[in-house]
Amino acid sequence: MLRLLVLLSCGVGVLAFKPKNSPTCGIEVSPNLIHHNPWLVYIEYWRGDQQTGNRCAASLVDSRHLITAAHCIINPKFTRLVARLGEYDLANQEDCVSGVCADPILRYEVEEIIVHPDYHGKSHDIAILRLAEDVPYTDFIRPICLPSGELQPDTVFAATGWGEIPLRGYYSNTKKIIPLPMWSTAECKAAYKRLNIPDNAICAGGQEGIDTCRGDSGGPLVWFKDRAELWAVTSVGTYRCGTKNAPGLYTNVAEHLQWVDDVLAGNYEKPEYDEFDIL
């Protein structure tokens, strides 16, 4: 039985401590596309012995844990989740780019789901998945670093996933990577005057035809510094992806670092949860 934990008492801090990143986090071994974003994980949804058509992504942050969007867990109907790591092209058994071929993908059962206690709609849209086994690090499977320092006004993020291609109406089989400039909170609220933009959100994008879209939810919004850092989780956007001056909303991981650290360390009140099969 898959356990879903809704934590009832957890602190939330804003970069109140230095993340406990591993020496291998945030590093791509080469510029070859097949090595890009080795922390990106494809989530398989299963109901009994049938895989469903749901599509979400996640980010590997250590050998046992993934960070994704809470709405990827709360909304779909499933009985189990499987994390697919080392994936590049969903349509091929063997992935090769420019003469470099990836190792076979690895699949791990998700044994525990921890949803942020304050998740509601667009707010605190973040969850952590605990895998049943430790993941070995390879050239194609590596963790991403958690955020450190402060964002700059001219920050340009990179988003990645296998979601729908804006303005085309079909999903990408290969791992797509797009640049998304950050918007200030004031600019974002001005663009969405009728919406209550969460304070724990990052706005990015707003370029015609370049955007995350359906199926990219839960995936990483990355800031590449000396290493890649997971600054946000893909959350929501406009129905017509890639609309000019309509940025996407991403859950700010830096605003949830204390909670993330507590969960990764096992420092949360395990008796205080609702446990049920997700159907």
TrEMBL record:
Segments forming domain Peptidase S1: 24-265
Pfam family, one: Trypsin
Signal peptide: 1-16
GO terms for biological process, alphabetical: proteolysis
Domain of life: Eukaryota
Key word Hydrolase present: yes
Residue ranges that the Swiss-Prot or TrEMBL entry lists as coiled coil: none
Xref: Gene3D superfamilies: Trypsin-like serine proteases
InterPro entries: Peptidase_S1_PA, Peptidase_S1_PA_chymotrypsin, Peptidase_S1A, Ser/Thr_Proteases_Immune/Dev, Trypsin_dom, TRYPSIN_HIS, TRYPSIN_SER
Record's keyword terms, sorted: Disulfide bond, Glycoprotein, Hydrolase, Protease, Serine protease, Signal
One term of GO molecular function: serine-type endopeptidase activity
Tagged with keyword Signal: yes
UniProt family annotation: Belongs to the peptidase S1 family. CLIP subfamily.
Annotated protein name in UniProt: Peptidase S1 domain-containing protein
Organism: Mythimna separata
